[in-house]
Amino acid sequence: MSLFNLPPIWMAPMAGEAASAALVAAVSAGGGVGQLGAAYLAPARIGEVAAEIRARTDRPFGINLFWPQPWMPDAAGLDAYLQRLAAWHAELGLPPPTRPERFEEDFEAQLEATIAARPAVISFAMGDPGPARVAALKAQGFKVVGTATQVAEGRLLQASGVDAVVAQGYEAGGHRGGFLGSPEGALIGTLALVPQLVDALDVPVLAAGGIADARGVAAAQALGASAVTVGTAFLLVDECPLSPAYREALVAAGDADSTLTRAFSGRFARGVANRVTHELEGAELPAFPQPNAASRPLRQAAAKAGRADFISLWAGQALPVNRRPGSAAQLVAALSRGWRA
Q1: Where are the domains of the chain?
Q2: Of 23, 57, 73, 144, which has the fewest CB atoms closer than 10 Å, so is most exposed?
Q3: 3.40.50.720, 3.40.50.1820, 3.20.20.70, 3.40.50.2300: which CATH number matches 3-336?
Q4: How far are the Cα atoms of 21, 61, 95, 117, 322 from residue 45, in angstroms, in the given order?
């Protein structure tokens, strides 16, 4: 046992297709700490999924939310983005894209639902909850974890009272969790970031990014991490409900196919390069979450149609390291072999 008397192998919270009760529960039941990426879930759905997790396991799990992002409506930018999507919609036989009625869920309602769900851990990305919010959550018995992409963010999170900080390296798949400076956060690799945060902070540090097997786990521990969070490797376990097109694209991707892109959401995220990322490379896009909401119908239809060229194929740079892990429990066991008690 390690951090908070929890196992040292955590599943990184992954939203979208991977946000399933079966996967989270399988990781926790298998000896790790499953985390639900709830950033895109309606408040009522958060409660439903948490109940499904508890029906599958009595082991602790976490729930992760995106801290609210300041953004300005950009009607002209959004219309230009919709125009770019229109040809791809037509190619898939979809109606022309339209402005979304809603761009994001109500964060306060999401947090209220998360609190009601009573996970062991509540974690945040893309922001600092602040001392009052952290203290209130801790007073209710939750462990609170923040995400940092640079030392300054880690120090700010520690000052707010978080119980631990995730060091999200440049290699990590999915959205960048930074919140100081540019929207993508500092682009520091895990190997450099973890020891800097360990040296700068008094709270435990969890290593994230580029960790997919026991060797990565051992390296993170040697750097001073108190636990690791692994995302990409769990995308291919038996319990993860990825669409066949997404799964096949991950299996086929090469080591040089990883890219950081704003193409699907308006915010930097790491995934496998495809037609959308190539054709929108360098394009001026409206701020997150406007493209994220606008591109959702295309991504969902593409998944059903088996068209990986139109799916946001979020995955980290360590994708080729471990692409046939079996069950979630088997992957947790394999990763755990890298952690020295």
Answers
A1: 3-336
A2: 73
A3: 3.20.20.70
A4: 11, 16, 27, 11, 31
Task: Please write the tens of the pLDDT for every residue from 176-230.
Answer: 999 999 867 789 999 999 999 999 999 999 999 999 999 999 999 999 999 999 9
Strands of the sheet containing 164-168, edge to edge, are 9-11, 227-230, 205-208, 164-168, 143-148, 121-125, 61-66, 34-37
CB 88 within 8 A of CB 73: no
Which residues are CB-contacts of 252 (< 8 A; sequence separation ≥ 6)? none
Q: How would residue 2 be classed by pLDDT, with cut points 50, 70 and 90?
A: low
- Write the pLDDT tens digit of every residue in 125-179: 999 999 999 999 999 999 999 999 999 999 999 999 999 999 999 999 999 999 9
Q: How far apart are CA 323 and CA 236, in angstroms?
A: 6
Amino acid at 74: D
SS3 314: strand
Predicted TM-score (pTM) of the model is: 0.96
Residue 324 burial class via C-beta count within 10 angstroms: exposed 0-12, middle 13-18, buried 19 and up: exposed
What is the secondary structure of 42-69 as a DSSP string? -HHHHHHHHHHHHHH--S-EEEEEEPPP
CA–CA separation, 167 and 147 (whole Å): 6
Please give the sequence-ordered ranges of beta strands (E in DSSP) within the chain, or none if there are none.
Answer: 9-11, 34-37, 61-66, 121-125, 143-148, 164-168, 174-175, 205-208, 227-230, 258-261, 269-272
* Amino acid sitting at position 172: A
Pairing of strands 143-148, 164-168: parallel
Q: Which of 116, 138, 143, 134 is nearest to 61 (CA)?
A: 143
Neighbours of 165 (CB within 10 A): 26
Query: Which residues have CB under 8 Å from 210's CB, separation 6+?
Result: 169, 171, 172, 189, 190, 191, 216, 316, 317, 318
Q: Residue 156's Cα: distance from chain center in Å?
A: 21
The C-alpha atoms of residue 325 and residue 330 are separated, in whole angstroms, by 7
| CA 333 vs CA 7, 32, 120, 296: distances in Å | 11, 9, 21, 35
